[in-house]
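Lecture 7, part 2: worked example. A protein chain together with KE4.
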Amino acid sequence: MQLDFERSQSLFNKAQTLIPGGVNSPVRAFKSVGGQPVFINSGQGSRMFDVDGNSYVDYVCSWGPLIFGHAHPRIVAAITSAAEKGMTFGASTEAEVVLAEMIVQAVPSVDMVRLVSSGTEAVMSAIRLARGYTRRDKIIKFEGGYHGHSDSLLSKAGSGVATLGMPDSAGVPPNLTVDTITIPYNNIEAVRAAVALHSKSIACIILEPVAGNMGVVPPKAGFLEGLREICSENEIVLIFDEVITGFRVAYGGAQERFGVLPDLTTMGKIIGGGLPMGAYGGRREIMEFVAPSGPVYQAGTLSGNPLAVAAGIETLRMLKEPGVYDELEEKGAALADGLAEAARSAGATAHGNRVSSMSTLFFTAEEVFNYSSAKTSDTAQYAYFFHRMLERGFYFAPSQFEAAFVSTTHSAADIEATLSAARDVFETMKKS
Ligand code: KE4
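Predicted complex, written out as structure tokens:
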């Protein structure tokens, strides 16, 4: 079934002469699945429409922010009325206080919060804060964890669990990753070993409490609790990077869902309602180290931008309404369980990991509980699935190592149509 991608292709050809790789963020270039990216013209509810007029049920949801789908009228109205009063003032506004209070009331471990403009900025600032507060330099992250593109976190594992990091990108000087220790996810013993070796020089441990960037990988029982215990014993700052999971897996995020409280939390995506927004927050005694109340500097021209704050406030108001998370749980399960069943009944080797309304169908027979097990997935099969579903009007992440998201606007009919197409694709996969 061939769709017409002509205008997308000509736009991509032009974009590549003007923008590196033709995209403003690498994952959009379809490099992991091959082929050329589609250019989107508009979105409405669960659907996106590309520049050639093709329509897709969207399971990327802009990589997580769109928990109420595209162009939700209440969020559009909130942004419009804010814009009519002015785009930005470079001065404080009442709305920033309202959103800060909503976040503090929602997220169990957050006493104070600073708004910034992206998840990267939130994480970069939280790491600097942890280092300033503890006067220690080393950090622990996990293989397959992605926390934005700040230098210290573009680091890959050394040979052993406790060897120090090496740059995972050109342009990152080795001295900026030498203090980054990278450990396999869900391996609490490896964390204990690294802390025993470096304990008094570790400022923080940062992780996605539910991994989304190796595909969806939930924490094993006891993993988050073990990290909490180790950090408390060694005065290490525990940072939950909830840029994806914040307000996604529960109104209070993964820390509410799993009952483990970090010392700092980074947020983004959903709290901006689709506009540029990030935030970091946590215990008052740590947050008061942030300038101008403390010595850790961080600043931003558009931090707390009135339009993004208005979209965030309306989004959180809607999330507080009864039944929203039950609906997301139900729709998330319908998609993930349905896809796994479609694969199983066609004899395809694929199974799913899911937490609430975020899931990943891994094309491997192995249990996926960390990055090395995620990498046993057959990425060529995933690419085949991705393109055959795209041709049928269903837009999944253009990478095996990302999450699929459902919104409240994904209807039962959308999901049933998705599963029917998937059954068809798994049948053709068998024959190919
Ligand atoms: P941004 O700077 O992209 O707003 O956030 C960085 C970030 C931080 N922490 C986590 C857990 C994240 O998932 C992200 C960004 N997520 C990716 C996709 N999983 C964004 C997509 C992209 O890079 O284009």
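Residues 324-345 form the longest helix (22 residues). The radius of gyration is 21 Å. Keep this in mind for problem set question 3.
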